[in-house]
Amino acid sequence: MVLITAGTSGESLPSKCYVKTHLITTTINCPNANLTSLPSRLPRLVGKVCLQQNLIRTIPDLSGLAFVHKLNFSQNLLTAFPWTSLRNMTMLVTLDLSHNQLTTVRLDLSINVLRSLRHVHLEYNKLATFSQANLGVSLRGAKFSGHRFIQGNPLLCDCRMTWLAGMARAFQQCWPGCTAAVKNSVLFHSFVFSDALRCDSPDTMKGVPLHSVNLSACSAAQGTITTKSYLKITTINSNATPVIAVSSSHEERNQTATGNQTDQPARAKTVVQNTAVITTSLICIIFLGIWLALRRWVL
């Protein structure tokens, strides 16, 4: 059944839209309808929201769509997305944000509750750098299947993207005879379109396929940095001006452990002294009790 209203208020939708109810959930489909924003007051039991090929720039909070299993906002003008609002969409299976202008992806903010999520389309956006966690595929103790589509983004090929360059190179070397484990990777389909995984910056690497990028220098540099660093104010002597130095948490733990080891003999000596005092006091009390008892017996 085709309708042109949405929400409890009966708000009119463009003529190219239709709302279809199947069992208890509703599908809203408005392709190429010149929409500049989401229809307000969407049905509470909406299952699919398909607003592809429109002119939408911003999306409000989507927390109220608890029953949605498909969101399609592809081919719009989105520059941002309310990632945290996905936390309430535990039934979400497909999220299509392809062909927009997104510069960040933060699935790590809500992926722990998105147990049904299988397909995330992020291809042809403005994503320059991102981590595995940002894509929701590397959280420890969590198991996810499905695919992430990331081809066609203007990648910044620096040390932060070493992980992706390594995966692209491994895929290029095994294709087409890759093992099942590789083919089941969440990024498999992105690597199939490896020609669309190219560096956009820096200028010296512009246009270079990701699998051809040599970031071995990054691995060597990262190997020397194994602990988290932070700024700490240190003073050389009482007359010196405090200076800000970089210290590592590993070094600080070692210093703390060394200090604790230095204090251990003094602490042990104190414990022995206290034990001797307590023992002497108990002996005195016992002898005093015996003396009082004998005195009463004699008298």
Tell me the structural class. alpha/beta
- Cα radius of gyration in angstroms: 33 Å
The biggest beta sheet is recorded as: 7 strands, mixed
Task: Return residue spans where pLDDT drops below 50 for at least 5 consecutive residues.
Answer: 1-10, 223-262
CATH topology of the largest domain: Leucine-rich repeat, LRR (right-handed beta-alpha superhelix)
Notes on the protein architecture:
This protein has 299 residues and is α/β, with parallel strands linked by helices. It has two domains: 5-223, Leucine-rich repeat, LRR (right-handed beta-alpha superhelix) (Alpha-Beta Horseshoe); 227-261, no CATH class. It is 27% helix and 16% strand. It has five helices and 13 strands. It has helices at residues 162-174, 180-183, 188-192, 216-223, 249-298; strands at residues 5-6, 11-12, 18-22, 25-29, 46-50, 70-72, 94-96, 119-121, 147-149, 155-156, 199-201, 229-234, 243-248. The strands form four sheets. Strands 3-4-5-6-7-8-9 form a seven-stranded mixed sheet. β3 and β4 (25-29) form a beta hairpin. It is flat, with a radius of gyration of 33 Å. Mean pLDDT is 77; it is low at 1-10 and 223-262.
